[in-house]
Amino acid sequence: MRRLNRRKTLSLVKELDAFPKVPESYVETSASGGTVSLIAFTTMALLTIMEFSVYQDTWMKYEYEVDKDFSSKLRINIDITVAMKCQYVGADVLDLAETMVASADGLVYEPAIFDLSPQQREWQRMLQLIQSRLQEEHSLQDVIFKSAFKSASTALPPREDDSSQPPDACRIRGHLYVNKVAGNFHITVGKAIPHPRGHAHLAALVNHDSYNFSHRIDHLSFGELVPGIINPLDGTEKIALDHNQMFQYFITIVPTKLHTYKISADTHQFAVTERERVINHAAGSHGVSGIFMKYDLSSLMVTVTEEHMPFWQFFVRLCGIVGGIFSTTGMLHGIGKFIVEIIYCRFRLGAYKPVNSVPFEDGHTDNHVPLLENNTH
User: Domain Endoplasmic reticulum vesicle transporter N-terminal spans what residues (predicted)?
Assistant: First the structure.
């Protein structure tokens, strides 16, 4: 009884077979079919390789929302070299809330040589080349995001030569924590001192002829320090043509959450515009000589997430490629074969034309070809 039920089940399953097998004795092969099959298999192999490369690749997804975090502090990462001695310059931050952050809170002043060594000059040249490419091709920013924590450090390499030249510049590096409001980070003559109406710099003791605000920005970023990320001002170098020269950078900061398969970091992107002018009170150009970075924060926050094609989607696309090529090539082969057969049949029919018509007395004609012909000699 069980065997009978099993046979019935197997016969029912066989009737539901949607892929019936044709005996090989009924299968007819042709050269055209083999050629089309070869083209189909080659196309499938190429498309499968391309699809696998797409499956291995990742892309960055950008999402935008309102930044609701106003209570946390903003970190400023700084590495700037100014062509003046350290005792003559001072750096600090003053925000819109009239809160002053002195440089002693996190910045270090190091005597340095302003001219770069050959290796450092090559590093700067490569960094400036990358900056120019980033301005032309914005999609390269995704590559930089994905390579964060994997690429080489973007910090200025140490000098490889033992120069006996005395230090003629001051390297200001470190970080500061400021309020998340618009502010002004500046480097000018004299050390900063608190003042009831804001703050001031002791510049009276510095000789005016020693003013030289030629500077090089090796690194400037906001938020968490992420190795491998190149910021817009990294590698910037400005040469002052006058003692009384002001350099201004207007920066718009966009809070950014970065989530890749390597890291998760809360950092900040920023856009910058530059301006420089000579201070000449007689000509109406007022101000203070120095380097001024005025920053403001955007109300939008960007979330950058690295995404990958799921395996099920890759499998479905692969099945679509195989099935679509099989169906398309089979249909095209059938249409081509049909057209060739029609043309061939028309040529064959054109070869059989009536030979001679034999008239009858009643006006009809005989179009039949005689089977036997008598040859008389």
Answer: 13-98
pLDDT in tens, 276-291: 988 887 787 887 888 9
HSE (side-chain half, CA atoms, 13 Å) at 205:
7
Burial class (CB in 10 A: 0-12, 13-18, 19+), 53: exposed
Q: How far is CA 228 from CA 126, 147, 360, in A?
A: 14, 7, 103
Task: Please tell me the distance from the alpha carbon of residue 60 to that of residue 263, in angstroms, as a whole number.
Answer: 13
Mean pLDDT of the chain: 80
Using alpha carbons, list the distances in angstroms from residue 183 to 84, 174, 293, 348. Answer: 24, 18, 8, 91
User: Is residue 134 very low, low, confident or very high in pLDDT (cuts 50, 70, 90)?
Assistant: confident
Q: Give dist(CA 152, CA 120) in Å, integer.
A: 15
Q: Domain coordinates of the chain in residue numbers? A: 29-60+308-344, 67-297
Quickly state the pLDDT bin for 377 (edges 50, 70, 90): very low
**Whole-structure pTM value:** 0.69
